[in-house]
């Protein structure tokens, strides 16, 4: 921390600034130097000694002084970058200016009148070199600041190790230095792992925090429907104007993916060595995901100079978007790079799960939400990476942590965003056949989770967790039910053998969703029944042989299918069903689902602690906007069915075209009839009842039920195992209707999800930056901050 003297001097300067009503000249170095020259204040000191009220007062009452303060601080950073920061004093000045700008920038962004300030030109700061007074050529302050930060992030003996052997050697010239030789960590496109340096890590972190603060102007603009507004700070920083774009992208990615919180494989090691890498890794992850905030649905693709990309990038592809970070990410193609990235992300995502085996054995990381956004961006922007992930069972090392987070966060309304991103990733993966195939791998890892004990595959784990989310999650998760069931539909044709526990869970969901009060209480609820029937049909038609457990469960619960086939459609019955609903407060009863004991060592999913801060999220598009239907043809290739004739499964209702906001309201069982917006009619029920795909199941019951009953009577059986053995050896070849084509609903990028990701990502960054609290109590517009 700074000494008492320097804190005092710094505070004196701040008071002078806030009390001076006259503008202070930019040339008055004696005054301005007090802010950075003689002080050694930590970033925490700066936040304490420069209160929000005083920054706002200067902004309102002596704007020219605030402008000069910013201009002078940027000038000092530019000078530091030019000179290469050789003396301790220069380094200290750079850090002080960096902290001061991190403190002040949010108050510039929150005032619309000031927003253009950093994009205005400053006389004398020429683009063409040292101080040409040619204003045509002047650089906006924002550009000077961003280029200085980029230079400083590759500054020998400050943020990277010097390659010079002796101190006699003249300092490395920062302008001729090839920053690709100074990449921070081995990994993608770089083989050399530099000696770790605590000082360099801390200095990088301060500069990355300033960079993130520059990018955070996005927080002060309300969410826009078109999402087309690119962030000018990110746009410039990730353009060819930044000569360090490639090494910095690589440094950030490698720093995140190479991080091992365990302490080099030795349990409890973190208790002996304080881990100074984690804050840097966290900052790197946050900067990386913000630079990758790019709406791929609207992106134009101007040419990019292919010469800078090095060998790690694939030059064969057509030039990508002009955001170089997105461009580089989309062009990574080497197997060993994919392996490094996937292993790194899987290792970090699994970290909280390790905690549960040997408590405190490893350092528990907190940035799993940033990692999930990064993983999403990788899969979304780099299809080769997505295929690599699905090529081996390594994808399960991503799946299990996601299911752990989903299960753990299901009751906590402050973690609804985490639930969404986990489900979005699984939806994206489920669009690929290989994901369904991988799920057949036996699940043997016993991560303590608050779910029933079962023996089976990763598919069973997925179904059991989804059942838990639907039946005992927070009510704000209802919009996700469609997504959860779509994922199961997408993988169902490939599931070789469901356990009895998972089979019973699926039938319990059908029971819950096919009660008349649930079906009639909202315009879209019947879609859930269509999804479940589609799951059963896929398994019966394509995986009958190994699925005797599911077939047995269907036979046991056959009454549910008969009730659906005979669903009443007359007005009195509809009315009666809705009356019953008013007396049934729980949307899904847990009765009828044999819960069984939870796994040993697990804790129940807890609701949010009162007082927890959370940020609001924009609504996500409905499943019809979120996905595009494709049909699997004979040879296994996918054919898009968009725009399809309106005959496919879940679309038997005119309501399918309603905007998603409306159905979201109607999903809440209480609001539909109370508000008088929507009420079910006989015609409406008939319109979709006639399309319920019950033929396959009815045929199965018609053939198998008499046979099973006969066995029971003949052998006086009450024993399940005998019946299961019979079903295992039974066959329905030639008895079922012709198999329907497999329908896959693939995630499709759209501006609605792009906007959702932007608000979610910045909400996470806002809440995670508490020391110092960069954005707290500033007037952000992208989301609301709420207390639980």
Explain what you see.
The protein is 51% helix and 4% strand. The protein is built from 34 helices and seven strands. The strands form three sheets. Strands 5-4-6 form a three-stranded antiparallel sheet. It has a two-stranded antiparallel sheet with strand order 1-2. A hairpin with a 5-residue loop joins strand 4 (627-632) and strand 5. It is elongated. Mean pLDDT is 83; it is low at 124-134, 299-310, 589-593 and 644-675.
Describe what is shown at a glance:
This protein has 34 helices and 7 strands. By secondary structure, the chain is mainly alpha-helical. A 3-stranded antiparallel beta sheet has the order 5-4-6. Strands 1-2 form a two-stranded antiparallel ribbon. Strands 3-7 form a two-stranded antiparallel ribbon.
What's the SSE blueprint?
Layout: H1 4-19, H2 29-32, H3 43-49, H4 52-61, H5 63-83, H6 88-109, E1 121-126, E2 138-140, H7 141-152, H8 198-215, H9 232-237, H10 245-258, H11 277-291, H12 324-331, H13 335-349, H14 351-357, H15 368-381, H16 383-391, H17 396-409, H18 416-430, H19 433-438, H20 458-472, H21 481-491, H22 500-513, H23 516-520, H24 526-543, H25 548-556, H26 558-565, H27 571-583, E3 613-615, H28 623-626, E4 627-632, E5 638-640, H29 660-667, H30 671-674, H31 682-689, H32 695-715, H33 720-729, E6 742-747, H34 751-768, E7 785-787
Antiparallel strand pairs: 1-2, 3-7, 4-5, 4-6
Helix pairs in contact: 4-5, 5-6, 5-7, 6-8, 7-8, 8-11, 10-11, 10-13, 11-15, 13-17, 15-16, 15-18, 17-18, 17-20, 18-21, 20-21, 20-22, 21-24, 22-24, 22-25, 25-33
């Amino acid at each position: 921390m700074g000494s008492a003297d320097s804190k005092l001097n710094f505070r004196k300067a701040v008071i002078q600034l806030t009390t001076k009503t006259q503008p202070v000249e930019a040339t008055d170095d004696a005054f301005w130097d007090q802010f950075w020259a003689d002080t050694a204040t930590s970033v925490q000191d700066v936040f304490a000694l420069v209160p929000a009220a005083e920054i706002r007062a200067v902004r309102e009452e002596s704007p020219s002084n605030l402008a000069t303060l910013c201009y002078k601080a940027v000038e000092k950073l530019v000078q530091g970058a030019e000179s290469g920061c050789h003396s301790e004093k220069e380094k200290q000045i750079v850090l002080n200016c960096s902290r001061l700008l991190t403190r002040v920038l949010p108050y510039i962004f929150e005032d619309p009148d000031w927003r253009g300030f950093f994009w205005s030109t400053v006389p004398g700061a020429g683009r063409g070199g040292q101080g040409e007074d040619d204003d045509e050529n002047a650089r906006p302050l924002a550009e000077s600041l961003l280029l200085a930060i980029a230079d400083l992030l590759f500054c020998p003996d400050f943020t990277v190790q010097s390659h010079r052997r002796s101190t006699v050697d003249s300092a490395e010239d920062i302008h001729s230095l090839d920053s690709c030789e100074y990449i921070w960590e081995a990994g993608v496109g770089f083989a050399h792992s530099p000696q770790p340096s605590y000082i360099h890590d801390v200095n990088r972190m301060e500069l990355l925090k300033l960079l993130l603060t520059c990018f955070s102007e996005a927080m002060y603009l309300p969410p826009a429907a078109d999402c087309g507004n690119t962030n000018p700070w990110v746009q410039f920083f990730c353009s060819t104007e930044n000569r360090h774009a490639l090494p910095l992208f690589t440094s950030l990615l490698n720093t995140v993916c190479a991080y091992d919180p365990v302490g080099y494989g030795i349990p409890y090691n973190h208790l002996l060595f304080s881990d100074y890498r984690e804050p840097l890794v966290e900052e790197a992850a946050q900067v990386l995901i913000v630079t990758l905030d790019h709406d791929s649905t609207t992106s134009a693709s101007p040419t990019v100079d292919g010469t800078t990309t090095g060998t790690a990038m694939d030059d064969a592809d057509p030039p990508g978007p002009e955001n170089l970070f997105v461009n580089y990410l989309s062009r990574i193609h080497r197997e060993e790079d994919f392996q490094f990235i996937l292993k790194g992300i899987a290792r970090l995502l699994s970290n909280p799960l390790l905690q549960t085996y040997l408590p405190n054995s490893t350092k528990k990381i907190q940035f799993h939400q940033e990692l999930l956004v990064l993983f999403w961006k990788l899969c979304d922007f780099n299809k080769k990476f997505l295929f690599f992930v699905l090529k081996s069972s390594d994808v399960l090392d991503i799946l299990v942590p996601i299911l752990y987070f989903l299960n753990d966060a299901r009751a906590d309304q402050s973690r609804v965003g985490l639930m969404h991103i986990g489900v979005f990733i699984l939806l994206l993966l489920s669009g690929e056949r290989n994901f369904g195939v991988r799920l057949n791998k036996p699940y043997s890892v016993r991560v303590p989770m608050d779910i029933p004990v079962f023996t089976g595959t990763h598919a069973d784990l997925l179904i059991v967790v989804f059942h838990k989310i639907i039946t005992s999650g927070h009510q704000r998760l209802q919009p996700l039910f469609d997504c959860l069931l779509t994922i199961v539909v997408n993988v169902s044709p490939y599931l070789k053998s469901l356990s009895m526990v998972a089979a019973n869970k699926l039938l319990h969901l059908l029971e819950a969703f096919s009660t008349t009060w649930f079906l009639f209480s909202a315009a879209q609820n019947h879609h859930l029944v269509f999804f479940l029937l589609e799951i059963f049909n896929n398994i019966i038609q394509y995986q009958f042989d190994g699925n005797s457990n599911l077939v047995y469960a269907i036979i046991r619960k056959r009454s549910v299918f008969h009730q659906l086939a005979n669903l009443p459609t007359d007005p009195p019955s509809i009315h009666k069903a809705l009356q019953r609903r008013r007396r049934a407060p729980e949307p899904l009863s847990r009765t009828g689902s044999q819960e069984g004991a939870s796994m040993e060592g697990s804790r129940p999913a807890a609701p949010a602690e009162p007082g927890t801060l959370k940020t609001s999220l924009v609504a996500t598009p409905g499943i019809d906007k979120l996905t595009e239907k494709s049909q699997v043809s004979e040879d296994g290739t996918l054919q898009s069915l968009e725009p399809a004739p309106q005959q496919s499964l879940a679309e038997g209702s005119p309501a399918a075209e309603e905007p998603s906001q409306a159905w979201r309201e109607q999903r809440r069982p209480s609001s539909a009839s109370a508000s008088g917006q929507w009420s079910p009619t006989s015609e409406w029920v008939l319109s979709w009842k006639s399309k319920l795909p019950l033929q396959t199941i009815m045929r199965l019951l018609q053939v198998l039920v008499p046979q099973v009953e006969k066995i029971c009577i003949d052998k006086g059986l009450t024993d399940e195992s005998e019946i299961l053995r019979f079903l295992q050896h039974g066959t329905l070849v030639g008895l079922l209707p012709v198999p329907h084509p497999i329908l896959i609903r693939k995630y499709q990028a759209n501006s609605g999800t792009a906007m959702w990701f932007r608000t979610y990502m910045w909400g996470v960054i806002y809440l995670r930056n508490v020391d110092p609290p960069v954005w707290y109590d500033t007037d952000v517009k992208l989301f609301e901050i709420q207390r639980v």
